[in-house]
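Let's practice the habit of predicting before peeking. Look at the sequence and jot down your guess about where helices and strands might fall. Then scroll down.
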Amino acid sequence: MTKVSALKSVSRFLPACLSVWFLVACDVPSPGEATPAPVLVTQDFADGTDGSHSQGKQLHGTPHGSVAFSDASILRSGERRGVTLELDRGELVADLALHVEGTTPSLVGCASPNETGPDRSCGLTVLGQGTCTPGARFTLSSGALCQTRPPGSCQGAPVMRVCSGERPCEDQDANHLVTGAPICASSTCPSANVQCPASGVYTVLAGPYTPGTPWSLTLGASRGEFPATHQELRGDRLVGLMMRSASGLPMLEVTAAINAQDVVIQESPGTWDPSGYTYLYRVKSLGAQPLGNICNSNPNPNGGDALVVPVRGLYDNLGERTESSTAFTLACEYAVIAKCYRWGYKPWLDGVQAGKTTEAHWACTRMARADYCGAGQYYTEDGTPIRLWDGMKPPINAAPANPIPQQSMSFEAGWTTDGAVCLSHWRWKNLDANTCTNLHWPKYDANGNVINDCQATGGAEGCSAICDNADDAERLYGAKVFNESASNGPNAGMP
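Done guessing? Here is the structure:
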């Protein structure tokens, strides 16, 4: 694994046969700006690739794939504080309630009315706290406009002091950022130009110029939020986040967070997810065996410490998916939940409610494990090449051209969330007769013709669901995704 620290990029040495179409969301906004709806662009395979994808045996890739939204915490100023997690597209977001840390002499009443001005150490109060993007500059202002009356939303010539973080400060303290001042001679309302601190949080103290006199001050921020009661933590600010496995134990800790558009892979278009809306995380388990990276069953011996992607919904050991408002899925990048996400079936593309893309993702997980029966049992090996496409309109993955180059692949099956709903003639002949119970085994006459094909019998009970192309699979059996594969010989049992 190669790291380029300046770009936070991670190279992945995956088989060159992996190639995929991606759904790209353009125009990623800067933090704090309004987030537009993603613009979806289907990208073609890179020249020279064979258009294949690789199957895998693992669903989650870890026994800790289900994680609770609640009972999470983050380390802040040496204190571990509770946060609530949520998913924003393909990114974890932690919501931290702000509070005032400690006190300072300036928050105590003044002994004498002669102690005036913004630099005094008494007679101030916490006006509020704000959030901002670290390093960004913004203006805190009462809205006063010069040469107008009234001079703005303040009374009593108030003073203002801005402190870094959640701790109130004195004028000479290390966390003192700036002291407010009127923006022009005609105004008595203070304003300040502030550079956002590394914490992304600031605390504003204010009070009357002369202690004991009436005053008021209403502030607004040109960027970020003021006043704010919560801070939204994203990206590498989640390093150190502790989460609870949905089963209760162990606790999991985020040790790295990388935007998936900076993770380099060898398949087109060259990055894990170019949309900018997906983050990958390195996560370790705590207080239970085995310790360390939760993705410790990587079938690629040179894969290094694998990353995880957060995915909406939960998958049980049988491959059944359910929506959940209390937990979400963490999938190791070599497991099929992550593979199908990376191949373009991102559940968040449906919006708030699960829809066709979520359904296609679920069906894809069946296909990517060759889970014919839809019972959680795989019939493939890691790295087995297939070519996939779907019947969505427009498609996320379009039907492959043949050959690109010729891979000796044939149409295999149509898939839904229940597994394979129909199989091709050649695939039936190359599977163990005991593979599935929900797909009735073909019956042959003396000439080798199937006599109980559902298409010929009108769907009679006990007929065999056979489809030799995607049109039949979709029209007759409601298939959502399709694939081609190569035979490994009669009764091989493996695609």
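How did you do? The chain is about 5% helix and 30% strand.
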